[in-house]
Specification:
Blueprint lengths: L5 H14 L7 H4 L3 H20 L6 H13 L4 H10 L4 H19 L1
Length: 110
């Protein structure tokens, strides 16, 4: 299988915490979200592997379109970059997340 890194787990914990209305910046503050984050990452990884095994792909055009839509929500490049940083993301990581999401959704829609 595909390994899940500590950085992926931490990022997922932060995202789940934020969705729960919690601003967690320490390991102790993120601790309640470890199980949910790990479950989420395992599920995403298994679905991504199944999608790839089934030959599902994410078009670069659709990925670029969704990335552009994300950028368009901000009034400036600086605001966009600040929002990415606040979520612990880079544009490359966001692109990877979009690609994974498209793969999984396309696979599930079959």
């Amino acid at each position: 299988g595909t390994p899940i890194t500590q950085s992926q787990l931490t990022l997922e914990e932060r995202q789940i915490a934020e969705q729960s209305g919690v601003t967690a910046t320490t390991t102790a503050a993120l601790a309640p979200f470890v199980s949910s984050a790990l479950d989420s990452l395992i599920g995403q990884t298994l679905l991504k592997e199944a999608a790839q095994k089934a030959g599902v792909t994410a078009s670069s055009t659709e990925v670029a379109s969704q990335l552009a839509a994300a950028k368009a929500q901000f009034s400036s490049q600086a605001d966009y970059e600040q929002a990415l940083a606040a979520q612990g993301l880079t544009e490359d990581l966001l692109r990877t997340n979009i690609t994974t999401s498209l793969l999984i959704n396309t696979y599930l829609d079959q």
